[in-house]
Specification:
Chains A, B: It is an enzyme of class 2 (transferase). Two copies of one chain form a homodimer. Chain A has 419 residues and is an alpha/beta fold. Chain A is 34% helix and 25% strand. Chain A has 14 helices and 22 strands. Chain A has an eight-stranded mixed beta sheet with strand order 3-6-2-1-9-13-14-12, with helices on both faces. Chain A has a four-stranded antiparallel beta sheet with strand order 15-20-22-21, sandwiched between helices. In chain A, strands 17-18-16-19 form a four-stranded antiparallel beta sheet, with helices on one face. At the A-B interface, helix 1, helix 2, helix 3 and helix 4 of A face helix 1, helix 2, helix 3 and helix 4 of B.
Chain lengths: 419, 419
């Protein structure tokens, strides 16, 4: 007997037929004698629909009310899955964020989970009742509804798994594992049997779209065993098809020959580039830009500052998620006098391409190989950032697919048999 | 300065453009110096969509989880209205059922409001903040989400108006008042400037579709001044178009000449007829039918029992809302041995037609006139019930519109100028 947390994404929850499929997978785990909690996303498309309502209502919407609106999507699917399980003879009930409760910070629309009260939840699970938990939502200290930001359901699942000390956290999605890159762009992409937490962090944060970054960071911190697998299709024995296990680095290193320099290529078209021109080149200038952005809970990703012009000023460029651009521009316009920049320029026609791999640490030349491969195809690099296991570049979004294909081949990731 | 509760139905909340129209009406009341609470329905069609998900998931759905699912519709519109008001410069916040809280009974899917905590709500309203309250929902004693049953938002509005001691409860809807009958069926239907609580009770309960029955009963009990008016169109002075005031009987009686024998004709196609054949004619037999239905919170409307056959048994017929038929049949099938009937027959092809008027009490012959008018057109009457101010008949639903038109003319309700 094990205690497991299962998480199903929006595509797996899109409509009652698919919810029945989810319920059948849950039932299978219950019949194996396991204690099960299920974390669910909203139906595919539903969160977008709700977010669009908010944007239409008010471009600079109140994040507190935004959370009231968007949290409803997961509320619906958790109720529907609970009743579907009951219909199949499996005892189940929904636990909304404020009912459990899942306490979060009060940073509405991008709250962080602080603590999860598990006494009542665990008592119900031990009594054989499946706990169905809407992902993405919690309750802030003042009793208001909070949400974790887009893709937050993965984080909910890992946090619940950590809180109930689950033996495993199975993340079911519409892909059957983690690939070397997006198979829709590169048909020869290969499924990885194992990937390290650190690699997943980079792959997820740069748009591999399999797991939310924060969930992987949390899994690493809390040592939660996470498995990514498909909610569609079954193995011949009726079990799940094999997915991708996310493991500690030591486990990969023992694999010897199988280890590779580069694990995968990721891309992200949802970034927006913002440039402030002629920022005074004095101590505190950069802080005056990023402190108010941080206060507004806007996620800044790449930051590029060149050496100062001879005029004593410099240009500062950075990227934010496209969805946060309007709020970022608003914050910066209000802070114009305090920062003292000349112009505020933005560009949403950009894409970030990253090559990721734990093997990179011991190999020079990865970045050079990347720039050469892109230059050979005439792809202009607008900005560069690097980390220990990643090199990322910002390019014009029109070149996204070309860049991914070129790099997938350049690093020898193409599968031998075409998909 | 007055304290008012405004309520907007699903058609008024269907989409952001309409929500802006609602916000403009709310803003107008705020600018008049009034303290305002707004109760909102889900967007038109949304509750149906959610109910259909539940039915599809499980024909005999768990009402507890059903409430989790369907309460989300009003949660969405309350958040959207709050942020739209803010965008227009009006301070506002949403108050979900569990946040206020609105305490209800634990009869899920048809809960009753027990108490409403108003301390925090009134403090915010007095401070000039508009309170946006999702209709239809509350929280049960065990902390689970509860809903009041379809159309419950009217009841929420009247209950909030009573709890905050509002000077007025304005119910905005997609019709501009209460008519003598459905104007879509009878173009010569007339708008009533005043109608009594008692008449509205009968008109609403038999399908006039303007106000939910329970809300009118509650308004009568709590002496809440209710006004029904349109959320579309304005008077030439920019104010609301005149609607229908719901008043005490004494106010109508002082109107002398204007009082009429019959106030209106209502119809309802959402009833289903259930017949149990050969029920033993012994004490307790009827109780054995209706006690389990009541325990399952199924609303039984008309009940007809004829005198016993010579065999010592009798047929019992009653009607329930079409939406509760499946549950009713389930309860009755499970109780077959205890009740001891022969057959369980049901028919959803029925309509209930009612003539309503406080003047009826002092006039004999209303019923006779009704049966004759229907018989003249060959319309067969399947069942009859009467109250002090109403006569209702059950007919085949195909004859609904014909019956309404015939009766509207027979009782002299047609307007002199065709609409």
């Amino acid at each position: 007997m094990a205690r497991i947390v299962m998480k199903f994404g929006g595509t797996s929850m899109a409509g009652i037929e698919r919810i029945r499929n989810v319920a059948a997978r849950v039932k299978r785990e219950v019949e194996r004698g396991n204690e099960v909690a299920v974390v669910v996303s909203a139906m595919a498309g539903e969160t977008d629909r709700l977010v669009n309502f908010c944007r239409e209502a008010s471009p600079l919407y109140d994040p507190r009310e935004y959370d009231v609106v968007v949290a409803s999507g997961e509320q619906v699917t958790s109720g529907l899955l609970a009743m579907t399980l009951q219909q199949m003879g499996v005892r189940a009930r929904s636990w909304l964020g404020w009912q459990m409760p899942i306490h979060t910070s009060s940073a509405h629309a991008s709250a962080r989970i602080e603590t999860i009260e598990t006494d009542k939840l665990l008592a119900a699970m031990k009594d054989g009742q499946v706990a169905v938990i809407p992902g993405f939502q919690g309750v802030a200290e003042d009793g208001s509804v909070s949400t974790l930001g887009r893709g937050g359901s993965d984080t909910s699942a890992v946090a619940v798994a950590a809180a109930v000390k689950a033996d495993r956290c199975d993340i079911y999605t519409d892909v059957d594992g983690v690939y070397t890159t997006d198979p829709r762009i590169v048909p020869r992409a290969r499924k990885l049997a194992r990937v390290t937490y650190e690699e997943m962090l980079e792959l997820a944060s740069v748009g591999a779209k399999v797991l939310q970054t924060r969930s992987v960071g949390l899994a690493l911190k809390e040592k939660v065993r996470v498995q990514v697998l498909s909610s569609f299709g079954d193995a011949p024995d009726g079990g799940d098809l094999p997915g991708t296990m996310i493991v500690g680095e030591e486990e990969v290193e023992t694999m010897g020959m199988e280890s590779q320099l580069i694990t995968g290529i990721a891309h992200d078209k949802n970034e927006a580039k913002v440039t402030l021109t002629a920022v005074p080149d004095r101590p505190g200038a950069v802080a005056s830009i990023f402190t108010p952005l941080a206060d507004a809970s806007i996620n800044v990703d790449m930051i590029i500052q060149n050496v100062a012009h001879s005029t004593g000023s410099t240009d500062v460029t950075f990227t934010v998620p496209g969805s946060e651009l309007a709020r970022a521009l608003d914050v910066l316009e209000k802070g114009k006098d305090a920062i003292g920049y000349a112009e505020l320029v933005h560009d949403t026609s950009v894409a970030k391409i990253s090559v990721v791999g734990v093997g990179m640490r011991s190999h020079a030349g990865v970045a050079a190989q990347m720039f050469k491969a892109l230059a050979d195809r005439g792809i202009n690099v607008q900005a560069i950032t690097t980390s220990e296991i990643k090199v990322s570049v910002l390019i014009h979004e029109d070149y996204t697919e070309l860049a991914v294909r070129v790099l997938h081949t350049a690093y020898g990731l193409d599968a031998e048999d075409a998909a």
